[in-house]
Structure to design on (385 residues):
């Protein structure tokens, strides 16, 4: 039987609204094996709750009655799907050690672990080809821009765009990095790890404002065309073009992914790949499969919170495969990850994790769900077994 105070703690935990003091109380409660079983039951039932919210099949009171009833009978709720539903217990933004089994790390090999958590950093490439390293605490200024090392801000040079030649700069964020930029028209851009964009120092008055996403993941908050004499805003990638009328959207186009994902937060966009063209409504995501012969643009309803979680310092995995999760982790921690057992490539996890955690904590959590046998960390190399 769960008392009301503990019920409230668990509810706050899953809503990511728990305080540090409350977190300590929940940790003490979870030291008892029976409570761990009870919490595991909640995890399983919470998954059903999430899936049922859209059709109002379950409410909170029903869930808790179910947990209490099953606990009194001494039964454990079964796993609902083949792939790692129990791994939803990894919803541990602030509590990565709840299910830490001390014996589980006995055989783990760690040699000179120098893997660091990602930070704000980037390289700015100017028109003359010179590269400027941007890091916290290192300011940089030219006649066109200012930077405090964590953000680049371009000046509005719309009155001085009579030059016949457009001057371009590049911003490159390495693996293990994150950065942001304000373009000369006021458009705000956030770049995720391992991303690169090309953009004009100043947009030509009355002409389409064009930015190239060379690779990676970028979030745009575009200055409306009404502020720029109706000039459209276009984002080009290698395989698609997005025409913008003033909006916020996210594009993920990594060179080692097999698709391009464009998610509209608000406003209007047209997505084109030279063969097909679709208009996205807010909350929709277009997916272009790069290995598809049809070259169609597929549109789905998007989980906005999940797609933009990286900007809030969160990994949000919605039943992603271990292979895809490894890609995300390798970009943020600047580490090479090899999955030795190919049979677990497609094992799927649901998890929300803080990007401030070190990678060993995350690997330990995944291992404790028994979906990987072990892992080896050697300098900046990780082997998952």
């Amino acid at each position: 039987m769960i008392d009301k105070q503990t019920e409230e703690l668990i509810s706050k935990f899953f809503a990511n609204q728990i305080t540090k003091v409350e977190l300590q109380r929940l940790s003490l409660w979870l030291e008892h094996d029976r409570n761990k079983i009870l919490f595991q039951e909640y995890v399983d039932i919470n998954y059903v709750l999430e899936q049922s919210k859209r059709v109002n099949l379950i409410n909170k009171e029903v869930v808790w009655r179910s947990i209490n009833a099953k606990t009194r009978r001494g039964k454990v709720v079964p796993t609902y799907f083949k792939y790692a539903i129990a791994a939803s217990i990894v919803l541990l933004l602030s509590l990565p050690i709840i299910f830490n089994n001390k014996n589980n790390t006995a055989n783990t090999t760690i040699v000179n672990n120098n893997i660091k958590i990602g930070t704000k950093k980037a390289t700015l490439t100017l028109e003359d080809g010179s590269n400027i390293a941007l890091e916290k605490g290192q300011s940089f200024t030219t006649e066109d821009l200012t930077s405090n090392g964590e953000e680049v801000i371009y000046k509005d040079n719309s009155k001085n765009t009579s030059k016949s030649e457009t001057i371009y700069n590049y911003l490159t964020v390495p693996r293990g990095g994150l950065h942001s930029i304000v373009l000369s028209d006021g458009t705000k851009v956030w770049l995720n790890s391992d991303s690169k964009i090309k953009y004009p120092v100043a947009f030509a008055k009355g002409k389409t404002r064009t930015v190239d996403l060379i690779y990676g993941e970028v979030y745009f908050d575009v200055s409306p065309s009404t502020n720029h004499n109706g000039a459209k805003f276009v984002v080009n990638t290698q395989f698609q073009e997005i025409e913008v009328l003033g909006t916020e959207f996210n594009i993920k186009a990594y060179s080692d992914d097999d698709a391009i994902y464009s998610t509209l937060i608000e406003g209007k966009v047209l997505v084109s790949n030279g063969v097909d063209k679709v208009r996205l409504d807010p909350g929709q995501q277009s997916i272009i499969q790069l290995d598809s012969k049809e070259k169609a643009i597929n549109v789905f309803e998007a989980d906005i919170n999940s797609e933009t979680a990286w900007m809030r310092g969160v990994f949000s995995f919605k039943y992603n495969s271990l292979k895809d999760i490894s890609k995300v982790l390798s970009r943020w921690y600047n580490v090479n990850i090899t999955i030795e057992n190919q049979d677990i490539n497609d094992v799927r996890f649901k998890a929300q994790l803080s990007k401030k955690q070190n990678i060993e904590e995350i690997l330990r959590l995944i291992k404790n769900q028994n979906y990987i046998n072990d892992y080896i960390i050697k300098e900046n190399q990780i082997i998952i077994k």
Remarks:
- The mean pLDDT is 80.
- The first strand starts at residue 109 and ends at 111.
- Residues 176 and 334 are 5 Å apart (CA to CA).
- The chain has seven helices and 24 strands.
